[in-house]
Amino acid sequence: MNWITNIWNHPKTSAAGLLIAAVSVAGVLSQQGVTLGKAGTGTVVSLASALATALLGLLAKDPEAGSERASEQGSTARLGVWLLILLMVSMPWMQGCSGVSVVQDIVNWTPSLQSAVATVDSTAAVLAPADAPIFAAATAGFDAASNLLVAQAKAYLANPSASVLAQLQTQIATFQQQVNAALLQSAKIVDTASQQHALAAIRGVGTIVNAILSLVASISSKAAVARMAAQPGVKLSSVQPYWNDSLAAEMVAAHYGEPLTVARAQVAQAERAQIAAGF
Predict the structure, then answer these.
(1) Considering the entire predicted model, what is its pTM?
(2) Is the CB of residue 189 less than 8 Å from the CB of residue 134?
(3) How confident is the model at residue 33 (pLDDT cuts 50, 70, 90)?
(4) What is the per-residue pLDDT across 216-235, written as a single tens digit (0 to 9) for each?
(5) What is the mean pLDDT of residues 39-56?
(6) Cα–Cα distance between 247 and 244 in angstroms, integer?
(7) For residues 269 and 85, what is the distance between their CA atoms, to the nearest angstrom?
């Protein structure tokens, strides 16, 4: 019966633990496509998760120094921090969010995408003469791909229909394949300085494309994600040696205005999910 005594003696910590469990279960249910019905523009599962988070926020106060209660409050605060990290890891790409809110997030990424593609366009000028044509050929489709993706995201935000979403799904999966192929081609550049310039430019585009891919996947059915992943091309696992996860985390942290540690976890989670899905 010690567990009953423990709950009685530490009610706030026990409540915080239950709330963390509630959010964890809600996350698993959302990832499995279980919604338990609609709640406004979201789902019952996402609403329950949000309520649990809000209640935990009320529990997690700063500890009072110099008192026995400080230990309990400190434990609750630490639980609050871990839950916050858990939520922030999944938040940008969380299942259960409304399609419109997710696509607004995609649209919010598009200025950064266009800037990254512009950097790619200007990179050939700083490469060795023999390497510039290789890089230009590898990235030739980036401008058209990014312009189409931006247009489709804005179109879906204005008219969230199944047909527009299908176009968005196809385009982001195609664009990711282009980025992966470009990484493989640029990795063949012999000149070290040229290769580093080329890979850095492509990584900038790839980080944003992968973030958008995760967002699109979060509002897509399992069948649609499977179709996206089944497109022929270079898989993410094949280009992992050429990625720079630190750079990707810095870009994500800057975009969402969040700690770098959280962004690293987000990038790692998204990468694992995409590889597991077959991208």
Answers:
(1) 0.68
(2) yes
(3) low
(4) 999 999 999 999 999 888 99
(5) 53
(6) 5
(7) 13
CA distances from 171 to 175, 205, 231, 279 (A): 6, 15, 11, 14
Residues in Cβ contact with 104 at an 8 Å cutoff, skipping those fewer than 6 apart: 157
- At 43 the three-state DSSP class reads strand
Residue 126's closest CA among 21, 196, 210?
Answer: 196
Question: Which class for 16: exposed (0-12), middle (13-18), buried (19 or more C-beta within 10 A)?
Answer: buried
- Yes or no: say if 176 and 209 are a contact pair by the CB < 8 Å rule: yes
- The whole-angstrom separation of Cα 186 and Cα 206 is 13
Per the document, the length of the chain is 279
Give the range among 18-32, 106-120, 160-174, 185-199 with minimum mean pLDDT. Answer: 18-32
* Under 8 Å between Cβ of 56 and 46: no
CA distance 43 to 65: 41
Task: Give the closest residue to 154 by CA, choosing from 119, 110, 210, 206.
Answer: 110
What is the Cα–Cα distance from 245 to 228, expressed in whole angstroms? 23
Handedness of CA 258, 260, 266, 270 (dihedral sign): positive
Angstrom distance (rounded) from CA 4 to CA 115: 58
